[in-house]
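Need residues for this backbone.
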């Protein structure tokens, strides 16, 4: 039912159903939490998303990577990009999705230097960019723009390699 409400972007009904579920002492699945977090990307529902974040911590879901990635994504998309890297840094591990979510968040908020530092970290940990990552990189990088004070000159070889890879 929650997924059905999520499918029509009805966070109010989905939230009521989740509250009823928790009230009856039925623990939601990890998938249900990820679904609800995806509905909380609108800043109008950020309060509910932060409550879900706390719920995930209190009930042992905080080290389930899809939930952690969804929490980072929620903070990025709701405009709280300053909170997202704090959550990212506290994660037990990172995968390509983890990096893509945070890089996309930085890119959408025009945080060019943070994008490139995170890409450097990702590559140094042996995680290769895929086509989705390349499109995120292309969205933040342009040789005609100055992303973060001379970023083009600072990391031109990395940009060229990544764009060529895609």
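Answer:
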């Amino acid at each position: 039912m929650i997924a059905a409400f999520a499918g029509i972007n009805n966070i109010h009904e989905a939230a009521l159903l989740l509250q009823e579920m928790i009230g009856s002492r039925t623990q939601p699945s990890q998938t249900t939490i990820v679904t609800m977090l995806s509905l909380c990307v609108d800043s109008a529902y950020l309060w509910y998303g932060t409550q879900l974040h706390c719920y995930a911590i209190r009930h042992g879901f905080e080290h389930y990577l899809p939930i952690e990635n969804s929490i980072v994504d929620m903070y990025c998309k709701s405009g709280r990009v300053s909170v997202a890297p704090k959550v990212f840094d506290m994660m037990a591990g990172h995968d390509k999705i983890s990096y893509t979510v945070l890089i996309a968040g930085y890119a959408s908020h025009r945080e060019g230097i943070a994008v490139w530092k995170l890409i450097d970290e990702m590559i140094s940990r042996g995680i290769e960019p895929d086509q989705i990552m390349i499109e995120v990189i292309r969205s933040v990088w342009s040789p005609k723009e100055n992303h973060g004070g001379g970023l083009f000159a600072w990391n031109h070889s990395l940009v060229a390699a990544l764009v060529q890879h895609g």
